[in-house]
Each structure stands twice: as C-alpha cells, then as structure tokens.
Amino acid sequence: MNRRQWLASTSLVLPALGLAQGAAPAYPLRPIRIIVPFPAGGTSDVLARMLGQKLSEAWGQPIVIENRPGSSGNLGADVVAKAAPDGYTLALMDVGTLAIGPALYKLPFNVTEDFAPVAMVAYSPHLLVTSPQVPANNLAELIAWVKSRKGAVNFAAAAGMGSAPHLAGVMFAERAGLQWGYVPYKGGAQAITDLGGGQVDLTFNGMVATYPHVKSGKIKLIAVSSARRYGALADTATVAETFPGFVTGSWQGPPAPPRRHTAPDHREVARRTDADHGPARYPRAAGRAGGRSQRHDASPVR
Fold it and tell me: Is pTM, for the whole model, over 0.85?
C-alpha cells in the first residue's frame, strides 16, 4: 500500500475501529499526549495547542503537547511509531513528515504500517517572507535583488533539509532561475527569529506561524503560495501569478500508532476543526480549518 492509498483508506479503517469500540473501555480514561516533531512556536506546534484545547474540552481529559524536534520531524515521528498502540499517543504531523521524508530518507519507521490516520486538521499555505533588510517589496523586486547578489543569499530551510519549506525554496529558485545557499533549522520558529534579525535573507514558512510576525512588522511579506489569493491576504500576490502552478503549503493531521482496543474518535477530531468549532480561531491564525471527510484526505499528496 502506498502513501496515497494509506491516506485514502482512512474512511475504511477508522469507522471499523469506531464500531469495535462498543466492547472496549470508555475513551479516554487518562491524559493524552500529542507529539509535535518540531520546536515550539512553529505551525504544527500552534495547531497542536489549538486542537489540544478543543479536544480537552470535549473529552474532559488533559492533552499534553510534547515537542520532539529533529531530523526534519523524523525523530518525533519515530517516537510515535514506537509508542504503545493504545490511543493515548497522537502526533501533529505535516506533509513533510508523512510524504516527503519517506521519499527522501531511509527511516526507522514505515509511514503506511506504523501510523493510523485520524483526521486532517488544517491546510496552511507558505508565505514567502524576507528580512527587513532585503530591499524588495514584491516578487519582481525580490528576484532582481537575488540575481544581483550572484548567489550570496541565504535561504532558511525551516524544519530542515527535505522539509516542505525547503522544497518550496528549491522549486521557487528553479522556476525563477535563482541561486542561494540553504541554512537548515529544526523548526520555523527559530528560522523566523533569525530572519527578523537579518541572519538569513528569506524563507517560505507556514502561514499560521509566520503571519503574526508579518503583522508585527518583524519580517516582510512578499507573496503567498496558495493557488489563489488567500483570505485576509487578498491584497498579497500569489507566487502562482508569476509562476503558474506554483502551489505549496503544509497539511497537518494527527496520526497515531495502529490501535488494538481503544481509539480516538476521528469524527470528534474532525468536528473540532470544522466550520462550527474551529474557524473562529483558525482564520485569526491565518490557517484554513480541516475537518474534511477522510475520503478527501489523500488530495494533499496526489
């Protein structure tokens, strides 16, 4: 079974587990931990804390957020893969960990066998942002400036080499005919801090974690990587307006080790991120709530 089939099969696997829960003890009976395979302050961390609060309210149990950064998210993913399959360890992972990493690296876990998908939480497009010191305010000016530097430009590979932000930078450089160096980070939060301080020049990073720093004036927004102009950023051009078909971003969801007896109800996770429960908070964080039917959850990796 490939990754696409694994995600697409969610609607078959989880309902079957849900039916089996009738004979199992009530769930949850104790605190649940959500592993975030990136440092605090990044997109996955922000979304995990939002979701954790909602699920704690719904289930009446504490939700503990545990950051396990390293190796482009693969260290934290390995912790989840080796956790007891009892439904009390979840993870907030993105497309980099679930789809890109397995295609690039030999990993100590198998995405299609060691994780059971629960629900898609949110989609967050990347923002192309620069240090305040970069003398560019739009895509054309940025491209011209990078070319004038003849390779003396540093791109922050937020979440590490092989992550979705890193590959967004690679794809953009290729489409625009640019050259720059890549500086790897364990997560987007530190990359944005260094970007604001001028230690690096530009990056793509998830909108949820990046937009507040744009609003505060700490960094400059150049473009958004969604297919069309995006929500509150309707005045900001998309990269696709210059390079048709350029669409990147992060899709987050909480997989868990395959369960045998107890399991989180994927319908509750989806309900807590749907149009009635999640949206009041997700738009303010500049992400789009998930809560979609699991039959459609394969679309981000197609």
Answer: no
